[in-house]
Amino acid sequence: MSANDSFRSFNPAPIVPVERKPARKADFKEQAARGVAVALNEIWGPYNRTAFGILMYHRVIDPIPGQPQPTWNVSPAQFEEQLSGLLKRGFDPWPLQRVLEHHEKGWTIPRRVFVVTFDDGYQNNFTRALPILQKLRVPATIFLATRYLDSNEPFPSDDWLASGTAGVSPEAWQPLTTDECHQLLQSGLIELGAHTHSHDDYRGKPDYLRTDLQQCCAVLRDKFNIERPTFAFPYGTKRNGFAGADLVEAARHSDLRCSLTTEAELVTTTTDPFDWGRLVAEDIDTSTTLAAKLGGWISIAKKLKHFLMRQKR
Ligand SMILES: [Zn+2]
Predict the structure, then answer these.
(1) Cα torsion at 117, 118, 123, 128 (round to 10°)?
(2) Measured in angstroms, how far is the CA atom of residue 236 from the centroid of ligand 1?
(3) Which of 3, 199, 241, 272 would be a feasible disulfide site paired with 203, CB 3.0-4.6 Å?
(4) Structural domains in the chain, sorted by start
(5) Which position has the higher pLDDT, 199 or 306?
């Protein structure tokens, strides 16, 4: 019996209420839409000149031969190409707290600003992502599901079938340790934020979310001296209710600075930071396609594709 079999026997029903997100290839239509978006971004620059983008990452590891493609993953080489390419294009990475401070003071944010975030708190954020962030001097926020700090089992929400199995380095799936978090903070580049304590399904349970957030905030305060952390919803979509209005209100009445969704949209400082979306940075993204996402053109191209498909019917 593998470590994973053992783990799953104790946890027979991992919570995976969203579709799997393996490394994937863009189909022809998506490639065409991305091509158009990239071209428009190169020619005209950003579509929306007052908005900025918050990028969302999870795992940063190399695919493991003989194993299924890791879900929610960007390889270290791709991660470095994405960020270094954005820097070369003049994009300016800011800490999330700095963006929020500008929002609270009503200051404008330069158009080329972007923010890097990671969800859950995988050990590879420390072992793989941090050295690249340090090399490029890019700040980032890691949203921790605090219940799993120091755990040597996979996150219950981890949908990658190889997590916890023999022959797969724990670095690929293990949660961060408290000591690693201290080292991340000492780097001066990393902020830790809240991602709930249990990373559960809180739909329709705003009181449960508030209680769970209190536990998460207590861990962040007791272990890392963090007051009023930033926050990102687990699973995070609005249409499926993971960042529904009831849960946004629960977050607003917890001691948090913001609540970020996973809606793929740019944000502005005049909008509500308890309703800011984020753009997924995928393994198929290059710095060129990420620049087009941050320029607002990928979402325009997607809307255009859907419009043209409707016209054909
Ligand atoms: Zn998560």
Answers:
(1) -60
(2) 8
(3) 241
(4) 48-296 (3.20.20.370)
(5) 199
